[in-house]
Amino acid sequence: MARYLLRRFIAFCLILFTISLLSFWLMRFLPGDPIVKHLGTSYTTENARQFAHQVGLDQGFFAQYFTWLGHTLTGDFGYSWNVSPNTSISEILSKTLPPTIEIAMLSQIIALAISIPVSVAVVRRPNGKLDRAANVAMLSAYSIPTLIAVPVLTLFLCVRYNVLPGPSSWVGFAEDPMLNLRVCLLPAMAISIASLAGHFRFLRNDMIINLQEDFVVMARSKGLTNRRILWRHVLRPSSVTLLTSVGLTIGGLIVGIFVAEVYLSIPGFSTQVIAAVDTSDYGLLQACIMTIAFIVISIQLIVNFLLPIIDPRIARD
Fold first, then answer.
1. How far are the Cα atoms of 39, 75, 112 from residue 287, in angstroms, in the given order?
2. pLDDT digits (tens, 9 = 90+) for 1-33
3. Are 30 and 122 part of one and the same domain?
């Protein structure tokens, strides 16, 4: 178990290092000059030289990278150049990251709350009417992109029926928890559509396979009800596949959140990424990329930690 987790942690560190190096290099190909955008009308050759020296842009690539890496490892992301001049990047992230995390967590809660009971219901009679109907519905849901789901749900839930707040209605959780939850519900529902379809397919197929195992035959011979067998004995080993599905959907989830936040004018993480790209704010953009990478890979690491707990055979293999 310890060796298994150690290998995963080493891979975690190597992936983060590779992402940081590649993103640091690729940012140099962004259109526009960050010095020109920072100085604006006060641009002169002398001012440009002073600013380049101040932020280290006059150094070589690897000197810049390892200077940035050293500061980042101590938790110092530096200051924004152009998006919010002289504002700590850590402060910017602390304000914009919570809405994004809240929407992501709520979307997965919705996806799991629907996919698990539906999967358990359809495996009672595989290929039955309910199973075929659920497969068609989930396949249809999986084919709906967030770019379409968000405006359609906004039209019905906000405009036509006025059930949920519309765009530009963001309120922080500390200000009004209930209103905050209602505002997050729309983007979370839109993002969860594809996730719940994926969770359903993974869990359904694995539960059907596990229903053929010897321990299920033994449970039936003891007179246990189908409900108890499915929820108590089949769902747990099948949760390995479900947990893997959750880990695999995180990357696509972030893309969906970005679309939802921009469309609904939610002051989340995506606004800073777009602003950083638009203004060539290298420091802020690099911090955003590494934050996303850290979150995604950390979730994968947590999944890898939980898998051998659910199924000890994974650690032995």
1. 22, 11, 31
2. 677 778 888 888 899 999 999 999 988 888 878
3. no
- pTM summary value: 0.86
- Is the torsion defined by CA of 253, 256, 258, 264 positive or negative? negative
Where does residue 38 rank: exposed (0-12), middle (13-18), buried (19+ CB within 10 A)?
A: buried
* Parts of the chain with a pLDDT under 50: none
The token pair that represents 308 in the structure block: 């051998």
CA 234 to CA 205: how far, in whole Å?
Answer: 12
CB-based contact 206:119 (threshold 8 Å): no
Q: For the domain that residue 282 is a member of, what is the CATH number?
A: 1.10.3720.10
H-helix segments, the chain: 2-26, 34-39, 45-55, 61-73, 89-122, 129-142, 146-153, 177-210, 214-221, 226-228, 235-248, 250-264, 269-279, 282-310, 313-316
Residues 40 and 147 in one domain: no
User: Which domain does 232 fall in, by range?
Assistant: 90-316
Nearest to 46 by CA among 61, 30, 35: 35
**Spatial CB neighbours of 273, under 8 Å, sequence gap ≥ 6:** 258, 285, 288
Contact predicate 186/164, CB 8 Å: yes
Same-domain check for residues 167 and 293: yes
Q: What is the pLDDT, as a whole number, of residue 316?
A: 56
**What span, in angstroms and rounded, lies between the C-alpha atoms of 34 and 53?**
13
Label residues 4-19 b or e (16+ Cβ within 10 Å = b).
Answer: beeeeeeebeeeeeeb
